[in-house]
Amino acid sequence: DLQICQHRAPTCCTKKMEESYQAAVRRERTQSIQALNFELKYMIVGHITAFQEAFESLLRFAENRTRSLFETAYRPMAKEAAEPVKELFTDISLYILGAETTVESAVLRFFDSLFPLVYSRLINPGITDLSQDYTECLRLTRQDINPFGHYSKNMVTELSKSLWASRMLSRALSLGIEVINTTEHAALSKECSRALVKMQYCPHCQGLTLIRPCVGYCLNVMRGCLASVSELDVQWREFISTLEYLTSEMAASHELETALAGIWSSINEAILHAQLNGPQLSATVDKVCGQPKQREGNLSAASIVPVKEVAETQTFVMAHTSLNNKRREFISYMKRSRTFYASVAERLCDGDLVMRDSSTCWNGEDVV
């Protein structure tokens, strides 16, 4: 009553043993593919972590730099500006990690929150009553009167260009892990598990426990079993090409590091622009939002000490070098895995599974 290991000679197998063999080959095949995938998956997971750490390090540098701008040059509003600055960098971090947000919404929300502070602390430092309604009016007015000139839009453009590739790379690496995990758990067809039993265990039914499959036979069986996995070859090669493109985009002229390092400078230029246009802004705001209460002996905007550029001593060199090295190392490894899905059968038939340098092997029917 044997279904798979039928043979003319007497046998020591039963139907129940054949069922056990089928369970064994399914388990072994999953373990073999997991072992093959392990190095590739380990490399991608390691780089996801390394990239994220490098991103976070750069973001921390940029955030600290921006905080120090307010603490050094714009002390009257430094305390109140801390929260909008923190929100801006949190939004940028979430965007890189793939959250459903945009760079534009993050930057414009920051400038919406910044305008009431700039208006009441720098342009009209005598304002005493900054009610919730008045603050909200200033926030909404910012979108119409554009107090920060082209600097807010420029910041959106620069960051969007540089952060896009980082965001896509982050999503692409997660997709790579998903693909590898899916192939590990691809179910074997009934025909495949029967073919594997015939190749690996049917010799045992004849007492031939030391005989292993012939190389060509093993390749035929494995290619048949892994046809669906090897179909990923074309897409996997395209995936590697996309990773190459994204890493080169990250290292191109709109570098992440340069854009993040320049955030404080863009904000500084935007605030200076608003201060220079203070009288016109005040006239427009008075018409739209009304006149707030002023402290007696109001400080005029003209008496504000001109803001000098903040001398920045912190460097991005370490984080910059670290990110560049990780990119190069990662893409070099991924290029070597270009044929990963085309060669799965060959690698599974390599090593202990088949007979090499021997005159006898199992061809599925007999010892040859």
Automatic annotation (TrEMBL):
The keyword tRNA processing does not apply. Cell surface proteoglycan. It holds the Pfam family Glypican. Its main location: membrane. This is GPC5 protein. It is a lipid-anchor; GPI-anchor. GO terms for biological process: cell migration; positive regulation of canonical Wnt signaling pathway; regulation of protein localization to membrane. The keyword Signal applies.
